[in-house]
């Protein structure tokens, strides 16, 4: 806020403008509201988008470029046989409620995640951990059944953050972590507020307060940014408006990449999708570029498997499922469906799903597949599709980093069971050599592409809009997060 003072200098009255105070609060827009605020007990990306690195921290963490950095562990050593890792923890760290952080909290968090009754949505991250031994307050050892080359990366996920035994049960509504921001308030249906943690162990946050504002409607999101009610929308839900923001000097348009493989999720355990010929027909009925152009206004990269194109081990397999409606009809006839069939297409709220769903339904209709569109809210999608597997087709973007391992999970929501894929993932888990891991990842991509497990559409682009004076927002999304720990306003 600017103000003017009268200053007496040499007998003259002078006007002096007070220095412009740097803004220290931020309102960040999000399309989806999290179902709760505990990243260790649900699959919703919106939870991490509020809490990752801001409220909760793990032993390691992802940087903005996707590399893995030390977190609550400042260093580690791996045994020569790869079967144990010793983590040296940071000293002087406290949880937001004042409880000291020690190796006991690490043991509690990991044992809670791997427990038989664990509600952790990514429990497979902890596969192979057979012990968590507290050596002293600042040293903990993780024992493994087999070497685990991805351990440091797995521990950087939001699902692996460290929680305190004293607050674990109430983290869903009053999250208590060790991060640079503390939870302040949650107005259901509207916003979550965080405030700077004055006792943070590391570099203090530059912002004093951050409000995550939930705006599901793209038109309302546009209006909120234009009116200044929201300062930034890291994943703006209406790409058709980006050109208008680019032409306005008040804003920066930030386009990067994400880990979001956007797929036509297919219920492999339900007829007729248990027939590979039907799944292949669907793959050839889809015109990816038409979906990218029509639903995302050109933002997005076509994919032919469940893997990010920016990863060094990526294989371009889009040629295995090129748009070919005549081939799709032929495959349906071979599968015993010469007249096609009826199914459902259950769509969550994001615009890539709702808009993309309309286009895909039209494309499927051209080859004889009548997909009834059912629009649901995010909580309903999680309950009906993700948990109950009560669907035929759906569209969702899987934004977790390096998550091809979900295809080795028999209980996963698209109900795909393949011992070959399970063996590939088991070998990958035990492999640390970068070249060997790349070969296994290439084989895994090819395996699910040739089995047409899902319809692989595009890699979700990160299209954000922010006030031109904001600095420090992530351009890319190596994990599902709105890390505001280094965000500030330029004076």
Write structural notes for this entry.
The protein has 491 residues and is α+β, with helices and mostly antiparallel strands. It is 25% helix and 26% strand. It contains twelve helices and 21 strands. The protein has helices at residues 45-51, 103-114, 151-154, 218-227, 242-246, 276-285, 288-296, 325-334, 351-366, 378-387, 419-429, 434-450; strands at residues 4-9, 12-17, 25-30, 60-62, 68-70, 73-78, 84-89, 129-136, 139-144, 181-187, 191-196, 209-214, 232-233, 251-266, 301-302, 341-347, 369-375, 393-398, 455-467, 470-471, 488-489. The strands form six sheets. Strands 13, 14, 15, 16, 17, 18 and 19 form a seven-stranded mixed sheet that branches. It has a four-stranded mixed sheet with strand order 3-12-11-10, with helices on one face. Strand 6 and strand 7 form a beta hairpin. It is globular, with a radius of gyration of 24 Å.
Low-confidence runs of at least 5 consecutive residues? 1-19
- How far the N terminus sits from the C terminus, by CA atoms, comes to 12 Å
> How large, in whole angstroms, is the Cα Rg?
24 Å
Indicate the percent of residues in helices.
Answer: 10-25%
Query: How many helical elements?
Result: 12
Mean pLDDT: 93
According to DSSP, the number of beta strands is: 21
Structural class: alpha+beta
How large is the share of residues in beta strands?
25-35%
Gross geometry:
globular
- Main β sheet profile: 7 strands, mixed
